[in-house]
Amino acid sequence: MLSIKEISSMFNLKTIKERIKSLDYAWKGLTYLFLKEDSFKFQLLFSFIFILLGFYFNITNAEWFAQLGVMALVLSIEGINSAVEQLSDYIQPNYDEKIGKIKDIAAGAVMVAGIFAFVVLLILYIPYLLAII
Ligand SMILES: Nc1ncnc2c1ncn2[C@@H]1O[C@H](COP(=O)(O)OP(=O)(O)OP(=O)(O)O)[C@@H](O)[C@H]1O
């Protein structure tokens, strides 16, 4: 069991400052994704449209959780995919089969999240769409 001293050292001023600095780095990364990565921008636009749809159809809290959950999943994995692409291009700017495979795997992970998001959003919105047609 941790002592009071050990617990307080976990939350000392230096640790808190380091955490805040990490948030700053993360914010820089997010700004980069938002400004430079087309696929991230596209997913963000798509998410925004579905947020508007959520308000339009006045979806339930549980439906918001499902919608926001799949959006967070897709955007996060898209961000990691962009990082993998950047790292790959940095370590190997030339054509390289292994790099191609690594990039394909990262893109495949985005696709998995995208397929699940698509299915969740279909299940969520089909009843609302059927109700207005
Ligand atoms: N250095 C490379 N060597 C071999 N194949 C590559 C290389 N770079 C890219 N590829 C192939 O091209 C595909 C697309 O790579 P790229 O980095 O352009 O990703 P993208 O999905 O087009 O990027 P973005 O997310 O910016 O649209 C990869 O999945 C891989 O199959």
TrEMBL record:
PANTHER family on file: DIACYLGLYCEROL KINASE
Similarity remark: Belongs to the bacterial diacylglycerol kinase family.
Membrane-spanning parts: 42-59, 105-130
GO molecular-function terms, A-Z: kinase activity
Annotated organism of origin: Psychroflexus longus
Subcellular localization: Cell membrane
Keywords: ATP-binding, Cell membrane, Kinase, Lipid biosynthesis, Lipid metabolism, Membrane, Nucleotide-binding, Phospholipid biosynthesis, Phospholipid metabolism, Transferase, Transmembrane, Transmembrane helix
UniProt protein name: Diacylglycerol kinase family protein
Pfam families recorded: DAGK_prokar (PF01219)
